[in-house]
Amino acid sequence: MTITTILCDLDGTLVDSRHDIAVAFQHAWRTVVGGIPPSATAIAQHIGKPLAKMISELGGMLSPPLLSIFLTAYDHTYASQETGLTQPYPGVTLTLQALSSFTLGVVTTKESGQAEIVLRRLALIPFFQHVQGGSPGLRLKPAPDTILAALAALHCAPPHAMMVGDTPADVLAGKAAGTKTCAVTYGFGKREALLQCAPDHVIESFRELVDLVRESRG
User: Fold this and answer.
1) Are 22 and 129 in contact (CB under 8 A)?
2) Which terminus of the chain, N or C, has fewer Cβ atoms within 10 Å?
3) Side-chain half-sphere of 154: how many Cα atoms within 13 Å?
4) Between 112-121 and 64-81, two packed helices, what is the crossing angle to 10 degrees?
5) Beta bridge partners of 11
6) For the residues 117-122, what does the mean pLDDT come to?
7) Alpha carbons 213 and 198: distance in angstroms, whole number
8) DSSP characters for 121-171?
9) Helices 64-81 and 18-28 meet at what angle, rounded to 10?
10) What pTM was computed for the model?
């Protein structure tokens, strides 16, 4: 089936955002949970999950009111940093230019507004026809909801799309939505966990995506 649309995860796939996320997460942890926050390395292993899940898996037990305060503190710090520590992965900009004949979209756990701020600051926003973030009523990856919402906005049937991401959630969401899947190994997900999800393709750098999708067009 010919691929016409490529959906990309943001954090860990298009951009290395671990430092901005760690700074905001650690600040919110000190403010709300108290004590020594998780290390940047530990936080990076959970990037791509909803913040509430990151907190619990890193040992934070928060009531709903405290969780709300944590999320507000995180959002405020993240926004104030203006993603100054976030950069595209090597080859991302040139690869997106080379893929200009495809319809491109972003599917992320971030809120759409946050994702657009990152993409705009890094001059990546013009490449994408749609940015799909988390929103009320849509389950986040690994559920297929956000991918299906993006495909609906882009008027693309799932078999003509490929989901590209760095975590098992990205691969599983793509499979559940009926798209082809491509795992990248340079991001936050562990290679072994990605392979266990049996993605259709595995690439070591974003640049490899060009040859991969061109082959799909014959």
Assistant:
1) no
2) C
3) 27
4) 20
5) 15
6) 94
7) 18
8) HTT-GGG-SEEEEE-TT-PPTTSSHHHHHHHHHHT--GGGEEEEESSHHHH
9) 140
10) 0.93
